[in-house]
Specification:
Length: 185
């Protein structure tokens, strides 16, 4: 079925044009290109393609070798993860509670929209800032004295936070420590 079949017939038109635009003949080798191909039944699958141009001893192109790996299941899993992340983002962004995520160095890496409303800070004022900056120093010390990183969580800790406009407000916080598969924070 494949013998003497034009290679372009294996790809949907847009994918073939995308591959052609990569100039494999000039580059000689292209690795790990994610694209789509037709199966025999004309269904479309996601593939990872690596192509090497074959040349004779005079440097003339004789053909090419393509290594094609079916990544349909991988792409489906990635899409499910993206859908799940989008659902979580919608839930977080529509929550009437401030939700802040920090990295292992206690820098703010993610937050929901309500956090900006509550604190009065804009996105560029929060990203990678130490989370301690939103607390008055004595409140931060109180939080640290709870040894939450060691315990793993603390719920309903009454404290105060500083808004961008300087106003200090009372809040009730809950903190959960997230760990990776190696048990690192």
């Amino acid at each position: 079925d494949l013998f003497n079949k034009p290679v372009k017939d294996l790809y949907p038109k847009g994918e073939w044009l995308k591959l052609r635009s990569l100039n494999v003949r000039k580059k000689g080798v292209l690795s790990s290109i994610e694209t789509k191909m037709f199966r025999k039944d004309n269904s479309i699958i996601d593939v990872d393609v690596s192509i090497s141009v074959l040349k004779d001893s005079d440097g003339n192109i004789m053909g090419s070798i393509g290594i094609i790996r079916d990544i349909t299941k991988q792409k489906e899993a990635e899409n499910k993860i993206k859908e799940s992340e989008n659902k979580i983002r919608v839930i977080l962004d529509n929550s009437a509670a401030s939700i802040i995520m920090t990295d292992s160095e206690e820098r703010i890496v993610s937050w929901n929209k309500f956090t900006e409303t509550l604190l009065g800070y804009k996105q560029n004022q929060l990203h990678l800032k130490p989370v301690s900056f939103i607390y008055p120093p004595e409140e931060w010390q109180k939080i640290r004295s709870e040894r939450i990183r060691e315990k793993g969580l603390k719920h309903h800790l009454e404290t105060k936070i500083c808004r961008e406009d300087g106003k200090i407000i009372d809040v009730d916080i809950s903190i959960n420590i997230l760990r990776d598969i190696n048990n690192n924070i």
